[in-house]
Design a protein that fits this description.
about 160 residues, Immunoglobulin-like, 2 domains, 4-stranded antiparallel sheet, about 50% strand, elongated, disordered N terminus
Length: about 160
């Protein structure tokens, strides 16, 4: 699922605890401000490149970005790169490059699963999932309302096995 906001969400690896699994959806990439060609950027704006590098990039010299994706620095924070009129400086990933935030998160699941302890920590929506019948597959949905009024949904398909 992609939108103009960013890339698809990421499903976090589940953690087992007493026949229950902690699941999470990391919405960071979905919520990210992604670099675009020929765009005016102001000092301080942060973007993430179209292909993840492990960094976000801060506009330290404002202007218009170039027509082609720059060769983003991928080895050390604080490395800089010119892009058209803009100079980008690598920074550690943070919420500063997100376009919006999650206002609310709701989890639902097929009958037979038990959802407990839903939570939200910045762009990470979490829930503990238990129950189910061995050999069955269940759908679990995370629906989020974003601070900018948009809505999004992620679907997990969970196979249950002994």
């Amino acid at each position: 699922m992609t939108t103009e906001i960013g890339r698809p969400y990421q499903v976090m690896e589940p953690k087992r605890s007493y026949h229950r699994l902690d699941y999470g959806i990391d919405w960071s990439d979905f919520l990210a401000r992604v670099w675009r060609p020929g765009t005016a950027y102001t000092a301080g704006q942060r973007v993430r490149p179209p292909a993840p590098t492990g960094f976000e990039y801060e506009c330290t010299t404002p202007g218009q970005s170039g027509a082609r994706v720059p060769q983003w620095p991928t080895t050390a924070a604080a490395a800089s790169r010119r892009d058209g009129e803009v100079v980008w400086t690598a920074r550690s990933l943070s919420e500063a490059s997100l376009v919006t935030a999650i206002a609310t998160s709701e989890w639902t699941a097929d009958d037979g699963l038990e959802l407990t302890s839903p939570g939200l920590a910045g762009p990470l929506a979490m829930v503990i999932i238990g129950g189910g019948t061995s050999g069955q597959r269940y759908s679990v949905y995370n629906r989020v309302q974003l601070a900018n009024g948009h809505r999004a949904e992620a679907k997990l398909v969970i196979p249950v096995q002994d």
